[in-house]
Structure formats: C-alpha cells, structure tokens
What does this fold into?
Amino acid sequence: MVTMTRILNFSSGPATLPLPVLAEAQRDLLALPGVGMSVLEIGHRSRVFENIIEQTEEDIRSLGSISPDYKVLFLQGGGTLQFSMVPMNLLAPEATADYLVTGHWAKKAVEEAKKVGKVHIAATTQAEEFSRIPRSDEIILTPGAAYVHMTSNNTIYGTQWKQLPDVGDSPLVSDASSDIFSGPIDITRHALIYAGAQKNLGPSGVTIVIIREDLLTRSAASLPSMLSYAVHAQNRSLYNTPPVFAIYLVGLVVKWLSGRGGLDAIARVNERKAAKLYAEIDRSGFYRGTAQKESRSLMNATFRMATEDLDKLFVQEAEAAGLDGLKGHRAVGGIRASIYNAFPEEGIEALVAFMREFERRRG
Ligand code: PMP
It folds into this structure.
C-alpha cells in the first residue's frame, strides 16, 4: 500500500469516504477475490456483477428497513435528473404537484417540474433566505396533488427537516441527496426517495431511487425508456450498462454503515458530531450560525464571521492546516462544514480546535 497523508475533507460532495472502504477497494482493484478480474472489467450481465448489485440492494433494504413493496433502483444523472424524472413519471397533464421550497436544490426541482406540468409552491422560506424549514401551519397543500416534493436536507443553507411534513394522502417525494441513511428513515411515509450517492453513500455516478411499486403504473409508455422508472424497475437497473464501480462502492459503504450498528447508531454519532460543532459556533458570538437553531442540519453546518474578509482568511488558513473544503457555496458565501456519515469524529475536534485558535488570533 502507498503511504500517504489524508487531510480532513469537509467537501459537500463528492465527499469523504470511509477509509476501510477505500482500502478494500484498493486492495481488490486489480482482482476481486476469487474472480481474478477487476470490478472495472467485469461485464454487467455477468453472474459476478449480478451478485454485486443484488447484494448491494439487499444490504440497502436491510439497512433502511425497506419493505418488498418498494423498488430500489440504481440510476444515473444525479439528483438533478430526478428533478425531471419525478414529474415526467408522476405528474399527469391535468394534475398539480406541490413543492416545499427550502433552498437552492428545491428551486431547481421546481424549475424542472414546471417544464412538465402544473406546480404549486406549498410553502417557501425564501423571504428568510432559507434559514429555516417551514412550520406545519405554513404549508398549504393542493387536495389530490400528484405528489408533494420536499428536500430533506438543504445542503447549501444548512437546514434539515426534523419531522416529515404531514401530507395526508398525497404521495411524498423526498430529495434525500444530502442526508440519506444519516439516521432512521420511515420509508412507509414516502412514495419515492432519491439521492445521489456522492455524499453519504459512495462516489458520484449512481443515484439511488426508492419507489413504491404502485407508482410505477404512472410511468407513461411514451416516455423515453431511460427516463422511465417502470423500465428501470422491470430491468432491475440493468436496462443499459450501469455504473458498475459506483454500485460496487455503494455496496462497500452500506456494509460499513451496517457494521457500525445500523441507522440508530449512525444517528447518534451524527448528532454528537453536529452538537460539538454547533456548540463551538455558538460559544462566543465570534462565529454566527446562518440557519435558525431548530432547523439546523446535522450534515452541513453553515456559519460566518463578522466580515467576508475574515471568512476568506478562515478558509485559507484552515486549508493550510489540512482542513479542506470549508468554503460555503457560492450562492451564500461564509463557511460550510459538511460532515456526512463517513466524516470522522476526530475531524470535528480538529475543526473546533482550529476555530478556537483562529478566534484567539483574529477575534
Ligand atoms: N439535491 C441536493 C439536496 C443536493 O445537495 C444536490 C447536489 N449537491 C443535488 C440535488 C444535485 O445532485 P447532482 O449533482 O447529483 O445532480
């Protein structure tokens, strides 16, 4: 094995992966044990790859307690293609889709849905710069909506739904790109959940879609095949060549997550990590959290200092100290620490120590 120094990677995605997963992938890269070929070289219709994709699906089902009436799909095109696929498959011409608009990615989802059909903004916190999640009394739903779309964690603004909204009988669709499997998730309250793998589950290149079976009948036969949930479900995500390496790596990450004791145990670690960081953000007033406290994300902690110059300096000096990827998204500026499942607890301590030191010198 090559010796190297790994820095602390606070990137919002692609993001840090568990070291044991990288080590296993490296060890087996030239030849999978018992196979004699790299996973990069194996045909997607081979028994070996079928085993990999089936096992990965089984492990996802068991980690997420997903019942057999949901399909688990491995698609391409990222969360962004789901912004289009959701309305193309689920929004019939005369129907209306409700959107809960809590940030940048929710707005993107709305833009794409509007190209397909009628959209109703059921709630938005844009007037407050998306600093919080809407309260239940602010949500105005369309009776008989085709679906209600939410973004469970707002990667850029650092907010997260703490409870699922009550959407009555409407199917709930959730973009869980930045918090999937960061804690327990009640699948039964969802009709569809989607997430690009590159934050909590693996590398970029594969998007996980968990869809309740009865929704598959909504996919019109006239849809292009690659955009149809029904086609992908019928073909068990092997309609065309899937991203084999990304799926293999998701399999390793899901095994690693299961090995940590499942979603309840993972939630406890994520809560502890976030609490340590927010305690430091709140300690003296030098740092200011940008999200309102009750809406704070466990995955992306956003904060700023008194001036943009200080923010810039913080990012530069942190980088020099081996803490990478802390610059906030260009849409909001400031600092963002993305601390997904695989981000190590010691990394939080290192950031907190750096924050104290920075405040001592610059405060
Ligand atoms: N939804 C959310 C919540 C995201 O954070 C992102 C990307 N950061 C996307 C969607 C878009 O995902 P992708 O880049 O995989 O298309």
